[in-house]
């Protein structure tokens, strides 16, 4: 068995920043003052209202979904995806620019085994807590203060993933 | 029925779903941002405790928009709770209500069961598993998968990405396995 480490291929630690986390790419060459970020705060407020009024932050609704007892969640996610698809298609077709006049760039995702293993692990957590990351924030705002612990634990889970990342199969 | 009463009702899926979908083009138009929420947890790690881990050594300030967005989610949910919350308990499938009664869950006053998600419950085995272990799985799993329901299921599928479809199928598979095969045992604790 060859144990020389020098012959081992360099593990690419940058692949993830580019491909697994498209959100971590900031293509914008524009330099805006920090307070421009308030537009995202307002977008977040609208989204938070939607999450609550759609009842998708409800643990009960998530249990219904995983027991096939209600169409509600499937309707919400399905119609959201349909509208999102149409939106992205229109942006691509008409080469629509951002409000600051920049071309919109979308990033393809590359497959890696993490999407299967991580996907299943997240699915387990989703069924237990009845919340994905967005609803965790919404539940806290909505007054379920104990969910702060769930959110802190999710941050800890993210951190541990970062710690173990090079040892995990991807 | 006045406006506040009208808007306080739960919004049906065919209203709320398409509006959630509009978040995708909205964020692209506002500044070329790909919709995704779990990344905010990574940015929090990068900002608070990078601990020399390469995964957290990047310029998180460039991604500050994502933290503004999740702060907005907290604020938006707060506004609903104080100004137009639904006064009625969540309307659920009676089968689920029956099943949950067996585990002693019968309080439907809030969107999340207060009998499970409360501070004192943290000291019980059931509460610890559901809040601490469950939360850990959400954070670890979403990052390992490279996205959550928003980044993969909504943004990724909107952009017709096959890896996102695979991830979404695995989210659902994990949820079905847990909710039907494992969770009943946890709820009985």
Describe what this molecule looks like in 3D:
The complex is a heterodimer of chains A (170) and B (189). By secondary structure, chain A is mainly α. Chain A has helices at 15-20, 38-53, 59-66, 72-93, 114-129, 133-141, 147-164. In chain A, α2 (38-53) packs across α6 and α6 (133-141) packs antiparallel against α7 (147-164). The longest helix of chain A has 22 residues, at 72-93. The relative contact order of chain A is 0.11. Mean pLDDT of chain A is 88; it is low at 1-20. In chain B, 64% of the residues lie in helices and 0% in strands. Chain B has a domain at 116-189. In chain B, α3 crosses α4 and α7 runs antiparallel to α8. With 189 residues, chain B is an all-alpha fold. Chain B has eight helices and no strands. At the A-B interface, α1, α2, α3, α4 and α5 of A face α2, α3, α4, α5 and α6 of B.
Low-confidence regions of chain B = none
Q: Please provide the count of β strands of chain A.
A: 0
Structural class of chain A: mainly alpha
Biggest pleated-sheet summary of chain A = none
Give the radius of gyration of chain A.
20 Å
- How many DSSP E strands of chain B? 0
């Amino acid at each position: 068995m060859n144990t020389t480490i020098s012959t081992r291929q360099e593990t690419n630690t940058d692949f993830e920043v580019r491909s697994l986390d498209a959100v971590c790419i900031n293509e914008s060459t524009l330099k805006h003052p920090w307070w421009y970020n308030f537009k995202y705060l307002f977008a977040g407020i609208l989204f938070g209202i939607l999450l609550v009024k759609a009842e998708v932050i409800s643990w009960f609704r998530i249990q219904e979904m995983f027991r096939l007892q209600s169409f509600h969640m499937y309707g919400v996610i399905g119609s959201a995806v349909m509208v999102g698809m149409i939106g992205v298609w229109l942006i691509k077709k008409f080469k629509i620019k951002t409000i600051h006049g920049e071309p919109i760039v979308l990033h393809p995702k590359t497959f890696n085994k993490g999407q299967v293993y991580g996907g299943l692990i997240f699915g387990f957590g989703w069924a237990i807590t009845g919340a994905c990351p967005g609803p965790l924030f919404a539940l806290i705002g909505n007054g379920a203060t104990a969910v702060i612990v769930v959110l802190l634990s999710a941050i800890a889970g993210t951190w541990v993933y970062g710690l173990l990342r090079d040892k995990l199969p991807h | 029925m006045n406006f506040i009463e009208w808007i306080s009702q739960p919004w049906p899926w065919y209203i709320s779903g398409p509006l959630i979908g509009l978040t995708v083009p909205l964020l692209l138009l506002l500044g070329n941002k790909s919709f995704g929420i779990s990344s905010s947890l990574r940015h929090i790690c990068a900002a608070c405790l990078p601990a020399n881990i390469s995964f957290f050594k990047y310029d998180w300030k460039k991604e500050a928009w994502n933290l503004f967005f999740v702060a907005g989610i907290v604020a938006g949910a707060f506004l609903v709770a104080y100004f137009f919350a639904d006064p009625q308990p969540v309307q659920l499938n009676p089968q689920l209500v029956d099943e949950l009664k067996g585990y002693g869950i019968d309080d439907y006053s809030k969107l999340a069961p207060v009998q499970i998600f409360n501070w004192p419950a943290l000291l019980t085995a059931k509460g610890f598993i559901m809040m601490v272990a469950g939360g850990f799985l959400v954070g670890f799993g979403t990052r390992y998968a490279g996205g959550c329901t928003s980044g993969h299921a909504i943004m990724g599928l909107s952009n017709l990405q096959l890896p996102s479809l695979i991830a979404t199928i695995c989210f659902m598979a994990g949820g079905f396995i847990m909710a039907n095969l494992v969770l009943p045992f946890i709820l009985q604790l």
